[in-house]
Amino acid sequence: MKPVKVGLLGLGTVGTGVVRIVEGHQEDLQSQVGSPILISKILVKDRAKSRNVAVDASKLTEDPWEIVRDPEIDVIVEVMGGVAHSRDVILEALERGKHVVTANKDLMAMHGPEILAKAREKGCDVLYEASVAGGIPIIRTLIEGFSSDRITKIMGIVNGTTNYILTKMSREGAAYADVLKEAQALGYAESDPTSDVEGLDAARKMTILSTLGFRANVALEDVSAKGISNVTQEDIGYAKRLGYEVKLLGIAERQDDTISVSVQPTMVKTSHPIASVNGVFNAVYVHGEAVGETMFYGPGAGEMPTATSVVADLVAVVKNMKLGVNGRQAQLSYKVMKLKTDEQISSKYFLLLHVDDKAGVLAQIAQVFSNLDVSIESVMQPSAPHKSGAELIIITHNASKAAMNKVLQAFEALPAVQQIKSVYRVEG
Ligand SMILES: NC(=O)C1=CN([C@@H]2O[C@H](COP(=O)(O)OP(=O)(O)OC[C@H]3O[C@@H](n4cnc5c(N)ncnc54)[C@H](OP(=O)(O)O)[C@@H]3O)[C@@H](O)[C@H]2O)C=CC1
Ligand SMILES: N[C@@H](CC=O)C(=O)O
Ligand code: NA
């Protein structure tokens, strides 16, 4: 039986897992696709580097074009990362009729439409299950499982590194910088972990999920992103006292033909299932008009979980090759949806304020909320006041983002408010 030949671009965390699964599960894979799957060439930056998996050194190359232009290679698996270079390589591979599997969310969030259009033109598959929530088959689920429904909300913990950090900060009181180093050593973080901790990686994933879930043209620029670098132990402590967990949440909402997509540290009620997603685990909560509430859970990063999705995509490509139906999976048309204005985006908020500890301050603060028509759900003044005044924790009822911004502006100008320490969106 003629083997299906694969060119693997990258032999780092994910690439190593791909080699292990393709070799270790070869018999199972063959029984599904009817022929051997052979990784015939592997692209690396540095051939001399020692590897975590045994590979035949003659397969290694530092020249991507040697792989992409090899007529024997049927499928390219891109797990090297980066955007401009990967885009060029993938477009050339598609031009030459090769199918593509990629784990690259940066690329798919920024150039997905261009790459998928080229794939359609050439009758090729481009599958990217590993790009969002590493080991969870969420892309398939959105495309196929919910094709019959109209999704109104997608809420996700879609970055393993930050969930790992927040979990360790919350459970062990660990220091942010130390846990980040651990996440890097475990292979969870991006090569530049700024994209993890500043919410950009999650924003890219939410671009992909909301595009597929809402069947809409969502651009990365449409997604507002705030990361976890300002989350403090104090915030996490207060969240726990009030029955919340701090999570980096991607939230995409749709009403008719308007949408909003954002990523921000959020206080999630402990009774919500997503609040108990810890460590490197990810979860994607999906609400559909017909189905109601659903949630998908699993490891979000790391060698073997991510490689599981990559190789499952590879199997899907090879099955399509056998059936002669490659290039048929792509969505035919996307709706143009408007972004919600700040007046249309609504949620509850948590505020931690440092204020003067004297008579009448609470009344002034309440007056600001009242003037801007934001209703308060609860107020707490923790028993241990800070040195130069009092701490005040306020949780609002649902309020528009626009009204909340005005409240914050009013507090900036109010002498009795010494500092707005923290502001969080509240869910659940
Ligand atoms: N790690 C994870 O948990 C997840 C990662 N991803 C995505 O998968 C991709 C790979 O991630 P990961 O495996 O962690 O990354 P690594 O940094 O561990 O590995 C990257 C690999 O690609 C090679 N490489 C990178 N750039 C080039 C280049 N310009 N030319 C030739 N070879 C190159 C490197 O070569 P060398 O080894 O010689 O340096 C290395 O083998 C990224 O897009 C990432 O976002 C997606 C989901 C989860
Ligand atoms: N750095 C990413 C890797 C998977 O996409 C994460 O931590 O989730
Ligand atoms: Na996935």
From TrEMBL:
Pathway: Amino-acid biosynthesis; L-methionine biosynthesis via de novo pathway; L-homoserine from L-aspartate: step 3/3; Amino-acid biosynthesis; L-threonine biosynthesis; L-threonine from L-aspartate: step 3/5. Keywords: Amino-acid biosynthesis, Methionine biosynthesis, NADP, Oxidoreductase, Threonine biosynthesis. PROSITE patterns: ACT, HOMOSER_DHGENASE. It catalyses: L-homoserine + NADP(+) = L-aspartate 4-semialdehyde + NADPH + H(+). GO terms for molecular function: homoserine dehydrogenase activity. It is an enzyme of class 1 (oxidoreductase). Its EC number is 1.1.1.3. CDD domains: ACT_HSDH-Hom. Residues 350-425 form the ACT domain. It comes from the Bacteria. Its cofactor is a metal cation. Belongs to the homoserine dehydrogenase family. NCBIfam families: PRK06349.1. This is Homoserine dehydrogenase. It comes from Cohnella yongneupensis.
